[in-house]
Design goal:
This protein is an all-alpha fold. The protein folds into 2 domains: about 15-55, no CATH class; about 60-180, Up-down Bundle (AhpD-like), CATH 1.20.1290. It is about 60% helix and about 0% strand.
Amino acid sequence: MSNKFPVLTRETAPSPSLPAIELAIATFGFVPNLIGVMAASPALAESYLALSAIFETKTSLTSVERQVVLLTVSRYHECRYCVAAHSMAAEMQQVPPEIVGAIRNDQPIPNSKLQALRSMVICLIEQRGWLPEQELQAFLAEGYSPEQLFEVLVGVAQKTLSNFTNHIAETPLDEPMSEYAWSPVDAG
């Protein structure tokens, strides 16, 4: 990790970042290295945590669907930290391992509705929001609503913030995530 982007703590973070540090402790029981890095910018740390809370509590997507979105964005961006973090989170939320494995290894998800969601996430990223009608219709045909399409954008934004932060800072994995370590070289 570059010493230009240290993992900050409650003791070393700038005072405007302390509310984000405290929220991370309350949410996760510790300060994940991602939040420690983000704490260099109170605006970034606060934005990320706010988007995370909104995506988790204010969308109509199920916990499995939310993890599909978060893992898909992270896999697409080849974010080692977030693929590991969300592999662990998915296991904690009882997402079937074959779904997590399919995303990690860039293989089709063995569930047509979740595969349509994953395809939509990839399309949104690749097309920068310019959706081909065929992709939109395939997503809606699986039972998703226009509202849920917009909710997916919240997850894409949340993970883009963290993926890009981790790329810049080369954020080290937290110890609890080490067994979920992932590399694009290992996949597919």
